[in-house]
Amino acid sequence: MSKPRLRFAPSPNGYLHLGHALSALVTWDAAEKLGGTALLRIEDIDRNRCKPEFTQAVFEDLAWLGLSWPEPVLHQSERFPLYAEAANRLRDMDLLYPCFCSRADIAARATGTDPDGAPLYPGTCRHLSNAERIERLERGDPVQFRLDSGAAIARAGLLTYTMIGPTILDRPQIRYARPERWGDVVLQRKDVPTAYHLSVVVDDDAQAITHVTRGKDLEAATDLHVLLQMLLSASAVCYHFHRLVTDRDNQKLSKSKGSPSLRDLRAQGWTPADIRRAVGF
């Protein structure tokens, strides 16, 4: 069997904070315990928010923590044609359809929420005729492309995945995936030929990732990734979900909330050892 391969894959849309530090440390520690390799991947598909200075800061912050990785580092912004190819494979299976609904349209018609708490897409554009789709595409209406989850799940059948926990060396457990909780998710946008769920599955397969370590807040997303792995004939991986770093209000840290960055803490005199103690590692 090939040696274990893991990855830490931040989005450079801001500076890394303590939550990222924990995730990175968990990944490198797991790779060491499994006798494998930890890779660094830059998930920069969001052209508007991801900045070169944030990417450079990722390298600097991780090196400051004492972590290293093989070169070259994969940058998702350089792989858009591969994601478009994967989307076209789904389109050829009749599993991808154009959606012209705005966020307001969806919110007004949604009857529930997905695991992230967002309004669940009601499937409005799934029922458009081919003529209507062609007319609106030719007219240049704002569009995104969604997975027909019902058809996709019917095609894939019963889905399971392997979870390891609470530590990376524990006995694997088999879990059932429930992608129906997500409805018809967006996998491709007009301006960007991919979305997170699609690109992460394509890249995990391309990089021969065997184990994915991620925070518990991303556990539900595994449902979709397992489904896409099956549809795209990608290799399955083992999953390990680690705890989150939270603030005084017991909310997870985030860039959008202005959680203190590693750079801020370093400027205040923190050391890598302080970071490790702060995240309980």
TrEMBL record:
Q: Name one Pfam family in it.
A: tRNA-synt_1c
Q: Can you give the residue ranges of the Glutamyl/glutaminyl-tRNA synthetase class Ib catalytic domain?
A: 5-273
Please give the coiled-coil regions recorded for this protein. none
Q: Which domain of life is it from?
A: Bacteria
Annotated GO molecular function terms are: ATP binding; glutamate-tRNA ligase activity
Give Gene Ontology CC terms. cytosol
Cite the entry's keywords alphabetically. Aminoacyl-tRNA synthetase, ATP-binding, Ligase, Metal-binding, Nucleotide-binding, Protein biosynthesis, Zinc
Tell me the InterPro entries matching this sequence: aa-tRNA-synth_I_CS (IPR001412), Glu/Gln-tRNA-synth (IPR000924), Glu/Gln-tRNA-synth_Ib_cat-dom (IPR020058), GluQ/Sye (IPR049940), Rossmann-like_a/b/a_fold (IPR014729)
GO terms (BP aspect): glutamyl-tRNA aminoacylation
Matching entries from SUPFAM superfamilies are given as:
Nucleotidylyl transferase
Protein family membership: Belongs to the class-I aminoacyl-tRNA synthetase family.
Annotated protein name in UniProt: tRNA glutamyl-Q synthetase
Read off the lineage from the record. Answer: Bacteria, Pseudomonadati, Pseudomonadota, Alphaproteobacteria, Hyphomicrobiales
